[in-house]
Write a structure and sequence with these properties.
- By secondary structure, the chain is α+β, with helices and mostly antiparallel strands.
- It has two domains: 166 residues, Ribosomal Protein S5, domain 2 (2-Layer Sandwich); 127 residues, Alpha-Beta Plaits.
- Helices cover 43% and strands 24% of the residues.
- It has nine helices and eleven strands.
- Strands 1, 2, 3, 4, 5, 6 and 11 form a seven-stranded mixed beta sheet that branches.
- Helix 1 runs parallel beside helix 2, helix 2 packs across helix 4 and helix 5 packs across helix 6.
- It is globular.
Amino acid sequence: MKAIVSAPGKLMLLGEHAVVYDYPCLVTAVSSKIKVEIEIISTGIKIEAPQVKDVSFVEESIRFFKEKFKFKEGLSIKTHSEFSSQYGFGSSSAVTVATLYGLSQLFKLNLSKREIFDFGLEITLRIQKVGSGFDIAAATFGKTLYFITGGKKIEILPIDELPLVVGYSGVKASTPKIVNQIKERLRKEKGKIFGIFNKIGKIVEEGKDSLLAKDYQRLGFLMNENHQLLKELGVSTAKLDKMCEAARKAGAYGAKLSGAGGGDCMIALVPKLKKSEIEKAIEKVGGEIIKVKNNANGVCYER
């Protein structure tokens, strides 16, 4: 018996870091996916995951599933990623969700997507100790989501694909490390950091309205404001700032880092007629353009 499933990566639109502390965010699923092929074998666990940064997410998913559903069969698991784990697209979350959904299909458990999300978040917290779950939600439900910490609210927004350009800074960052750095700053500068989070939370709420109204001028302005607040948090880098500034000067509505910061990717919301010009501007300052669509479908059973 065999199951093949796939789950998408993600891009954060608005709300980084604040979302860890009970504030909302906007996140979109991307077309690049991780595929997981799971087959029942006679004994043991065999994992082939050459493109997955950390196989502990696959291992913990299996361990969790065995604890929860008491199966004893051996498993062969193979993964294939359509994107590099270097990009900060959430490969760990995508492979966790795909593994859980694949096991659900293989053992005919018919778990709901909400259950997959809840299990995926628990597994992530077991391994990383920190996290809000927005990346697990994007991999599970797909599309573009309004999300509040821990899945208190997961709302699929009725929008079309956004005109985004994605640029990679060339630097791989550690999300748990940066999240823990913010946690330490909170201990020392609680008033200042929560002041920033409050502003980010308001940006997300206004950004949701702008997104639904397709008011890209306003959404771009809010992205710029969000990036400035992330700079104040100390999570941006000179390279990300330079890429965002280049995109704005070339005609983007707005640009910001996407994710935990410290490297990884930036995004720019662009007029379609200026997309090529903006991509070239980002490349000129050393960014790598990542060709990926957004508002993609969530985890799915392929066969």
